[in-house]
Specification:
Structural class: mainly alpha
Distance between the termini: 39 Å
Number of strands: 4
Strand content: under 5%
Radius of gyration: 19 Å
Helix content: 40-55%
Number of helices: 17
Order of helices and strands: EHHHHHHHHHHHEHHHEHEHH
Largest sheet: 2 strands, parallel
Strand order of the largest sheet: 1-4
Oligomer: single chain
Length: 336
Amino acid sequence: MSKFDSFTWSEESEPHRIRTREMIRKYPQIRELIGRNPFTIFVVFAAVGIQLVLSYFLQDQPWWLIFVAAYCLGAFACHTLFICIHECAHNLIFKERNMNTIAGIIANLPLVFPSSVSFQKYHLKHHSFQGVEELDADMPYQWEAKLINNSTIGKAFWLLFYPVFQLFRPLRLTKEVSIFDPWTVVNWVVQFSFMAAIVYFFGAKAAIFMTASFFFSIGLHPLGARWIQEHYLTHGDQETKSYYGILNPINLNVGYHNEHHDFPSVPWHNLPKLKAMANEYYDTLHYHTSYTQLLFRFLFDKNMSIFSRTARADRGKVKLNDFSVYNVETAKTAEV
């Protein structure tokens, strides 16, 4: 079977569980890094504020400036907000789950479409069942991979409209996760009310700026290469890779992806400390240092396609990581 006809199928457990257990035995002080960072809420307020200010000043500007600002400024603010939503999904800002949900809804505001509550519900499945298509919403559909294949134009189209493709993936988790609940309704009402207010007070150009910023932030943009960096097979069969580049400070260290999957209960500001503490485990792994270089490689390398992922067919063979699926308090005392 061609590598452009199927994912790389594995019967092994996801790669993080064994490493996590080895590391916590060797470095029990890692537990001290587990916790929360309530100051992340100020990052949320700052990024939302940046988008509101930019929307206000761009409401009467020419279209070319709106899209340039969205690509060069708005995309970075939106990407940071998406990472804040990710921190909320792991309960890494506040102790109370509802407070994290509210923080996620606030972070969602400039991202145009209501997604924070849904993301919180299905994201932990990605950690627990990495590569299992029916449970991992980060995995592309088979039809999605076949549609795009390895053509440069197809991959550019896929990145440009990545949010659209991502929108449909959680639907396959409906047997495990309830799509609608009261918090989902709140997310939708708040989000659509916010966008209506943007159009009413700032005009259509401001709304287009926010929409373009959102699509660029996780799409056809160097920041969009993050999706390739995290789990695409860019170096042999290593299915998770980190990014150690200049954008980590403004991206809240989201590039430390092996570290995050090994210990999802470690908040963003402690991920570099985790790497430094157990550096011998990460120095032997492949990693990326440039999103721009990775973006162009993905687009033009015919050996890379949407099928360049490790998949698992049997959810029963996936071993859960105690540090992945429980809350912060449980993770601090999880057995190894």
